[in-house]
Inverse folding.
């Protein structure tokens, strides 16, 4: 049983930066691939990117590649999403999630989810 608790959401201006954190409880975090997802109003949830268990490989959706960075600190049971050059279209509820496998060329299949945190980018 793993619980994921995100933090760091809020309001930011266009072009600004924001860092989200996702703290995990339990003893399986270091063995889990992790991902970040978001859901904008009226749209389906989409994958932002993912990171493997050791933290040495990442995957990103084309929409955020070059602007967002996923990292993790297994000693702290925490995964991060650094968001730079934010745009109004990045406004969404952001979720962290875990999966059983990491894939080099696509997002994880999330098997457990954290609660969402709101990110709003003003125009």
């Amino acid at each position: 049983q793993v619980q994921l608790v995100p933090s760091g959401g809020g309001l930011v201006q266009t072009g600004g930066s924001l860092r989200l954190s996702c703290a995990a409880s339990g003893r399986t975090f270091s063995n889990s691939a992790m991902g970040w997802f978001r859901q904008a109003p009226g749209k389906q949830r989409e994958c932002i990117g993912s990171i493997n268990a050791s933290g040495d490989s990442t995957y990103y959706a084309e929409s955020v590649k070059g602007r967002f960075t996923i990292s993790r600190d297994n000693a702290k049971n925490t995964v991060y999403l650094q968001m730079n050059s934010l745009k109004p279209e990045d406004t969404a509820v952001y979720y962290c999630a875990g999966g059983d496998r990491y894939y080099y060329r696509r997002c994880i299949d999330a098997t457990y989810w954290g609660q969402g945190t709101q990110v709003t980018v003003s125009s």
